[in-house]
Design brief:
GO molecular function: alanine-tRNA ligase activity; aminoacyl-tRNA deacylase activity; ATP binding; tRNA binding
Number of strands: 4
Largest sheet: 2 strands, antiparallel
Strand order of the largest sheet: 1-2
Distance between the termini: 52 Å
Number of helices: 9
Enzyme class: ligase
Mean pLDDT: 90
EC number: 6.1.1.7
Protein name: alanine--tRNA ligase
Keywords: Aminoacyl-tRNA synthetase, ATP-binding, Ligase, Nucleotide-binding, Protein biosynthesis, RNA-binding, tRNA-binding
Structural class: mainly alpha
Low-confidence stretches: none
Helix content: 55-70%
Strand content: under 5%
C-alpha cells in the first residue's frame, strides 16, 4: 500500500514483500542447507580453509568458530580491496585491516602455517568471478595487499602474543581479572599490538582490560 502522508492508502500496482533475506539467506533456503556457510559458493571457501588447517568442519565447536571467521573475513576483505579500499588506521580502511588481521589470527589458531590469505582469496575469486569479473582483473593487486598486510601482522602478533602471555601469567598469580590500561597501552604503543585484539584474546580466556 502507498501512504500519501495524510493517512490515505492506495493499492500499489506491484505487490511485493521485502523479507530482508538477502541473496545468501535466500540461497540457504533454496539449497535446503543449515547456514550460509553451507551454500555452494561459500562452502567451497569453507572447505579450502579446512583443507589448509587439516580440520573437519562440525567436528569441534571452537574450530568451527575460527573456520567461519576466516571464511567470512577473507571473503569480505577480497571484495573490499577489489572495490578500492586499502588497509589503514581509520574509516573503512581500518575495518578492512581488522578483518584481515582477525582472519590471520584465527588461521593461526587453526594451525595454518605461513601465509595463507592469498590462497583463500583465490578461492573467493574463482567462485565469484563470473558475477564479478573485476575480481579476476584485480587479482594481482588483491593478493599483493593481502600478503603485505599479513606479513606486517605476523611480525606484530608473534611478539605481542608472547608478551601478552607473560602478562596473563602475572594476572593469574595476583588473582587479577583485568589487564591494566598501562600494559594494554604498552602492547599497542611499543609493539603495535591492537587494543581490540588484546581485548578479544583476553575475553576468550575470561579476562578483561581496564580502560579507565
Amino acid at each position: 500500500m502507498k501512504n500519501d502522508g495524510n493517512g490515505n492508502y492506495t493499492t500499489l500496482k506491484q505487490k511485493n514483500i521485502d523479507t530482508g533475506m538477502g541473496l545468501e539467506r535466500l540461497a540457504t533456503v533454496v539449497q535446503d542447507v543449515d547456514s550460509i556457510f553451507d551454500v555452494d559458493t561459500i562452502k567451497a571457501l569453507r572447505d579450502k580453509v579446512c583443507e589448509l588447517a587439516n580440520k573437519e568442519y562440525k567436528k569441534e565447536y571452537k574450530w568451527d568458530v575460527s573456520i567461519r571467521i576466516v571464511t567470512d573475513h577473507i571473503r569480505s576483505a577480497t571484495f573490499m580491496i577489489s572495490d578500492g579500499i586499502m588497509p589503514s588506521n581509520e574509516g573503512r580502511g581500518y575495518v578492512l585491516r581488522r578483518l584481515i588481521r582477525r582472519a590471520a589470527r584465527h588461521g593461526k589458531l587453526l594451525g595454518i602455517d605461513g601465509r595463507f590469505l592469498s590462497t583463500l582469496s583465490e578461492t573467493v575469486i574463482e567462485s565469484s568471478k563470473d558475477g564479478y569479473p573485476e575480481l579476476e582483473e584485480k587479482k594481482s593487486m588483491i593478493f599483493k595487499v593481502l600478503s603485505e598486510e599479513e606479513n606486517k601482522f605476523n611480525k606484530t602478533i608473534d611478539t605481542g602474543l608472547n608478551i601478552l602471555a607473560d602478562m596473563e601469567e602475572e594476572m593469574k598469580k595476583n588473582n587479577q581479572t583485568q589487564l591494566s590500561g598501562k600494559n594494554a597501552f604498552k602492547l599497542y604503543d611499543t609493539y603495535g599490538f591492537p587494543l581490540d585484539l588484546t581485548e578479544e584474546i583476553l575475553e576468550e580466556k575470561g579476562f578483561g582490560v581496564d580502560e579507565d
